Amino acid sequence: MHAGIQIKSKIEYFLQRDGYQKMATDVPEYTLFFRAENQMVYAFMIVDATQNRFLMPDQYRQMKEAMAGPFITRGISDVHIQSLILAEDARLAQNICQNDIFSWIVDVNNEKLLVFEDKVADFYGMASKIDMYLATE
User: Fold this and answer.
1) pLDDT tens-digit profile of 83-111?
2) Cβ(50)–Cβ(84) under 8 Å?
3) 48 CB-near residues (< 8 Å, 6+ apart)
4) Beta bridge partners of 42
5) Would you say residue 40 has pLDDT above 90?
6) Do 113 and 128 touch, CB atoms closer than 8 A?
7) Which of 55, 62, 67, 81 is the most exposed place for a label (fewest CB within 10 A)?
8) Contact predicate 32/44, CB 8 Å
9) Four-CA torsion 129, 133, 136, 137, nearest 10 degrees
10) pTM of the model
11) Distance between CA atoms of residues 6 and 8, nearest Å
12) Taking the alpha carbons of 97, 99, 14, 29 in that order, is the dihedral positive or negative?
């Protein structure tokens, strides 16, 4: 099994086990997992850059904005989306999400969560949980 597919399945399983619901998209490289609480939505957008090495920052930004759309149309305006960019090349992934502080990179070869200085260090307590899960499973 390809490393990107394997790690994506692993993260999807972890998020669902943690109470996040999967929302399918029309674009195979993007998957959203969300949890709604008290008129707020907390979500993880998984971006599989291993399947498409030509993802561009503008496409990424538009997709992230589009992911919030279904919640906003239902009257939920407080939508928080953290991206997990699955990549074999961290530099390529950094380019995709360069202006988004709510983005982390998952190194699929080493199964490691990479949180760079210019990004948020945590997202509702999930950084250490994801990192530990990747290291132990």
Assistant:
1) 999 999 998 899 999 999 999 999 999 99
2) no
3) 4, 8, 28, 29, 30, 31, 86
4) 35, 80
5) yes
6) no
7) 62
8) yes
9) 160
10) 0.92
11) 5
12) negative
Secondary structure class of 3 (helix, strand, coil) = helix
Read off the tokens for 75: 């009257």
105: its two tokens: 């990179």
Report in angstroms the alpha-carbon separations of 132 from 18, 49, 61, 126: 14, 22, 28, 10
Distance between CA atoms of 14 and 16, rounded to whole angstroms? 6
Yes or no: say if 4 and 11 are a contact pair by the CB < 8 Å rule: no
- Enter the tokens of residue 19: 């109470």
